[in-house]
Design goal:
Shape of chain A: globular
Number of strands of chain A: 2
Distance between the termini of chain A: 27 Å
Strand order of the largest sheet of chain A: 1-2
Helix content of chain A: 55-70%
Number of helices of chain A: 7
Oligomer: homodimer
Chain lengths: ~170, ~170
DNA sequence: TATTGTTATACTCTATAACTATA
DNA sequence: TATAGTTATAGAGTATAACAATA
């Protein structure tokens, strides 16, 4: 970080990641702030359009929210006509979440917006740098995602903290 | 995103940024979870050690929290002896936040931990890839940070949304 | 009158648990 | 008994506004 006008916990990596991530999130929020639930609402529509989750529980898990939150979110999205709850003929406890025509149309248009947002976030790079960066970024993320990220990330820290001798306090 | 077992709003970039960022944040939190306020508490100690902000208001702005929140945070950090509030001789309204010896010792040790966290987050890359990636990432972040990130990010979106004709609803 | 820091209040999110209807 | 979805409640975190001391 060191004198860039913003704070970070670390030697620049976390700071830079944070800047890019927040820029993306901010633009993404602006791109869907007219929807109920903002980005989360769009994730629900996205999953519905692409039929990625068979029921509400799986959908909530996929987009990383609690199933109790999803209930309210679906109430709003259904009221505005973006998605519908349909009974699952195979299990009458379950509901399938399907996109309406309105939801599908909205989804297609906003996908285009997101492509532009991505290019904006990487605006400091030229074409070939951008491609290299994306490829490497995706590989690093895939690696983290594959090898139990939560466990490993914290384990590194715990090992190092355990070595702190004598105790700081 | 597309079938990586986690959701994203976009064509992979936001997803990958999110994965790396969250991995870093999670490890960083684990590295300072014994401090009052966790990561925020460490940011306060960091700013105090490096004497980056002249008073509480500037400090709060630097680390991106409300000054009312900083009051409680400082109460806790002071009680545990990491920092002290000192009256500013030049302006009796202001307080300088200075690190104690205990705070300074803790800071030095945790800096080391963060360096390891960074290497873990980029664990999917080899040495030379890691260097290239860091350099490019820092450049992209610096660019975003320089050219009014909030304004530009949202402007891109607003321009595209304005072109959506006819209205979706 | 404006600013620094503090305190008190209200609001939003989230997490937890209890409830129903099905299996 | 276990599961899918819903509802109600409590807690944490945040934002807002009012306040006292000083400029």
């Amino acid at each position: 970080m060191a004198g860039r006008g913003e704070a970070g916990l670390d030697g620049d990596l976390g700071w830079a990641l944070g800047v890019l991530y927040r820029a993306f999130v901010k633009a993404a929020e602006a791109a869907v702030d007219d929807l109920p639930g903002g980005p989360r609402g769009y994730l629900v529509i996205d999953a519905a359009v692409r039929e990625l989750s068979p029921n509400q529980g799986a959908l909530a898990q996929r987009i990383g929210i609690d199933r109790t939150v999803l209930t309210y979110l679906l109430d709003d999205l259904e009221r505005e006509g973006y998605v519908e709850r349909r009974p699952d003929p195979a299990d009458r406890r379950s509901r399938r979440i399907v996109a309406t025509d309105k939801g599908r149309t909205l989804w297609e248009r906003r996908q285009e917006v997101f492509r532009h947002v991505e290019r904006h976030v990487l605006g400091g790079l030229d074409e070939s740098e951008m491609n290299d960066f994306r490829a490497t970024l995706l590989r690093a993320a895939a690696h983290i995602n594959e090898f139990d990220p939560v466990h490993n990330a914290c384990q590194v820290v715990n090992e190092l903290r355990a070595r702190e001798e004598p105790p700081v306090y």
